[in-house]
């Protein structure tokens, strides 16, 4: 679909015709003897782009919009009535826009219907662990709404733009106000809330504690020129508010959030239009996400929301047990629905909760993951990563399993089938849409390699032998021959930083002690890459994972100080009681213990540090 002209004459715009934009009068108007005039929009000081005023909407379209608005207001009021724990839609939002109400979600709310009906799978070893979320932090209230940064605007645009179905959300300048219109055909006008003009445009002076977490200008450039702040008290804005909140959170927890735009939209919109409890749950998560996007230090009300979210997910996961195996198709669907909420909770807990509860939740959720996986079993890692689907929850969990295993030295929670070969690795280079590298920055080839190495280790442990030296040598050779597609972004510094993350993973794949010449070479290369990039939240927050392995074998005090400073430069890792800070304490434990014992660090020290610091 071609873009609508922004500098055409008033006559052509009114007639909905393409203008050739000849000055002082366009050729079309001259040939037809029509009056031709260019009416320019007054500059606002936010940019230098010249635009002409848009034509008025025809009466038929205005009537259609009015009918949609009335229908959506009626449906939105019904949505509010079912969100029992939120009292009123205004209570979801800023204190300045709503009466001060302390209650959030009632403790007796039944969330079980949200996740699944009880089904059966074989459970892992029983785990009796109580989830412990972040301790209360200093309340921080911001009376003004938050404006989208340029990168979040690009992501927000991606959330409203599905590549496959040609739907689009457009922003038209109309007397310096923004208008969102949707041509999405997946949801009928009768079955979904719609967004209607005008949306409130409010100057925003709020600042975020996060810095440099966005790409340069992208598809959402129009959002940046006319920054949109939704009126959170308007019921018809609920869906847009939810997507806006997700767009704000995603750059904090996803390596390349623009790649996740359409998938996130499919998932969130589907749940928003699902059951009444599911819709209420989406609203709750979006409010937590909005608060976290401003600061990792939640206020008291945000802590209550987060606590309720964690307790309900944890309780349902722990009760997910029966004796039926293999699972039926219906059970797999229910398990998959449960896993969506688990993964979503893990994303939020990654920047708010200690490492211990995250590991416990992952371990307890492993049976749910296995139940959700289609046959054959064990799950095929390549299929989880290579299959293009809107719902990537299975692959997401598998990547979480691998990443947490790598940074803690613990075995994988699940066994995966990995027929390792460079030919299989090359499949990921055929199409940049393949794989889940955009999640945490770890190349998919390395995810498979870690899973393959874990399987070799478990087989050797079970047989009481060691891994064949020829296999080890082949793995070392393959590491240097793996091709990885470059990251594409208009921000050159961000592209370089993301490539550093991927190369850092390549540097840390050796499991010898700190004095081994191969490890010393890899560690030296890692530090060279790290020092070559300026401190910046993205990619630093995703460099943390390979930094743990490289840091464990770091012996120079100057290099250790660089690693510590990179950890503490990120606001969500500076405070005790969060996963990033726990990982730093694990590193410090390894350094202190190896110094005291006068020996080089080994791979096993990560596992011991996890037990000593985290208790798991």
UniProtKB/TrEMBL annotation:
It holds the Pfam family Zn_clus. This is Zn(2)-C6 fungal-type domain-containing protein. Residues 8-38 form the Zn(2)-C6 fungal-type domain. Residues 181-193 have a biased composition (Polar residues). PANTHER family: TRANSCRIPTIONAL ACTIVATOR PROTEIN UGA3, ZN(II)2CYS6 TRANSCRIPTION FACTOR (EUROFUNG). Keywords: Nucleus. Residues 181-223 are annotated as: Disordered. GO terms for molecular function: DNA-binding transcription factor activity, RNA polymerase II-specific; zinc ion binding. The keyword Nucleus applies. PROSITE patterns: ZN2_CY6_FUNGAL_1, ZN2_CY6_FUNGAL_2. Residues 206-216 have a biased composition (Acidic residues). The keyword Endoplasmic reticulum does not apply.
């Amino acid at each position: 679909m071609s873009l609508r002209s922004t500098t055409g004459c008033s006559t052509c715009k009114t007639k909905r015709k393409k203008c050739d934009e000849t000055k002082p009068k366009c050729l079309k108007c001259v040939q037809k003897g029509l009056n031709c005039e260019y009416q320019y929009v007054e500059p606002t000081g936010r940019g230098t782009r010249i635009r002409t005023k848009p034509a008025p909407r025809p009466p038929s379209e205005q009537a259609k919009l009015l009918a949609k608005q009335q229908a959506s207001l009626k449906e939105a009021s019904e949505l509010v009535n079912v969100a029992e724990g939120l009292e009123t839609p205004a209570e979801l939002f800023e204190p300045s826009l709503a009466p001060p109400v302390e209650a959030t979600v009632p403790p007796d709310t039944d969330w079980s219907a949200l996740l699944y009906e009880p089904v059966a799978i074989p459970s892992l070893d029983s785990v009796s662990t109580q989830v412990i979320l972040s301790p209360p932090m200093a309340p921080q209230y911001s009376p003004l709404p938050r404006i989208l940064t340029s990168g979040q605007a690009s992501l927000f645009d991606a959330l409203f733009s599905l590549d496959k179905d040609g739907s689009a959300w457009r922003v038209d300048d109309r007397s310096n106000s923004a208008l969102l219109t949707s041509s999405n055909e997946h949801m009928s006008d009768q079955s979904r809330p719609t967004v209607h003009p005008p949306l409130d445009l409010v100057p925003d002076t709020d600042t975020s504690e996060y810095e440099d977490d966005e790409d340069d200008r992208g598809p959402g450039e129009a959002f940046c020129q006319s920054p949109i702040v939704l009126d959170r008290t308007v019921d018809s804005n609920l869906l847009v508010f939810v997507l806006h909140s997700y767009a704000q959170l995603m750059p904090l927890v996803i390596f390349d959030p623009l790649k996740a735009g359409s998938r996130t939209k499919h998932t969130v919109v589907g749940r928003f239009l699902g059951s009444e409890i599911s819709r209420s749950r989406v609203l709750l998560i979006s409010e937590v996400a909005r608060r976290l996007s401003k600061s990792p230090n939640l206020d008291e009300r945000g802590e209550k929301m987060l606590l309720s979210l964690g307790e309900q997910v944890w309780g349902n996961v722990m009760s997910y047990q029966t004796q039926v195996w293999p699972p039926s198709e219906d059970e797999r669907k229910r398990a998959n629905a449960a896993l969506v909420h688990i993964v979503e909770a893990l994303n939020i807990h990654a920047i708010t909760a200690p490492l211990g509860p995250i590991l416990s939740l992952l371990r307890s959720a492993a049976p749910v993951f296995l139940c959700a996986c289609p046959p054959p079993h064990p799950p095929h890692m390549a299929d989880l990563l290579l299959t293009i689907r809107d719902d990537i929850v299975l692959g997401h969990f598998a990547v979480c399993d691998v990443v947490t295993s790598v940074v803690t030295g613990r075995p994988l929670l699940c066994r995966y089938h990995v027929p390792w070969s460079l030919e299989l690795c090359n499949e990921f280079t055929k199409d940049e849409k393949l794989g889940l590298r955009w999640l945490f920055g770890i190349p998919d080839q390395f995810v498979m390699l870690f899973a393959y190495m874990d399987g070799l280790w478990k087989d050797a442990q079970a047989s009481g032998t060691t891994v064949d030296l020829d296999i080890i040598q082949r793995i070392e050779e393959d590491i240097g021959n793996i091709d990885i597609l470059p990251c594409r972004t208009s921000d050159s510094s961000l592209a370089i930083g993301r490539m550093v993350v991927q190369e850092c993973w390549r540097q840390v794949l050796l499991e010898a002690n700190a004095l081994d010449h191969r490890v010393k070479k890899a560690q030296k290369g890692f530090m060279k890459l790290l020092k070559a990039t300026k401190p910046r939240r993205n990619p630093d927050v995703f460099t943390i994972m390979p930094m743990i392995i490289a840091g464990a074998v770091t012996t120079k005090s100057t290099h250790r100080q660089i690693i510590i400073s990179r950890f503490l430069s990120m606001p969500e890792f500076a405070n005790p009681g969060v996963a990033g800070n726990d990982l730093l304490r694990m590193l410090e434990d390894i350094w202190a213990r190896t110094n005291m014992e006068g020996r080089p660090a080994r791979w096993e020290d990560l596992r011991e540090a996890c037990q000593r610091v985290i208790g798991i």
